Amino acid sequence: MQHTAKYVSILVILVLVLFALALLNISLGSVHIPARDIFSSLFNAEVSKETYRYIILDYRLPKAFTAIIAGSGLGISGLLMQTMFRNPLAGPYVLGLSSGASLGVAILIMGSTLIGGSFIALALSKWSLVIASSIGSLIVLFAVVLASVRLRDTMAILIIGLMFASLTGALVSILSYFSPAAQLQQYIFWSFGSLGDLSWAEVGILSVFWFLGISLAIFCIKNLNSLLLGEEYARSLGVNISQNRMLIIIATSLLAGSITAFCGPIAFIGLAVPHLIRQILPINNHLILLPAVILGGAILMLICDIVAQLPGMEFTLPINAITSLIGAPVVIWLLIRKQKFQF
Question: What is the separation of C-alpha 210 from the centre of its chain, rounded to a whole number of angstroms?
Answer without folding.
Answer: 10
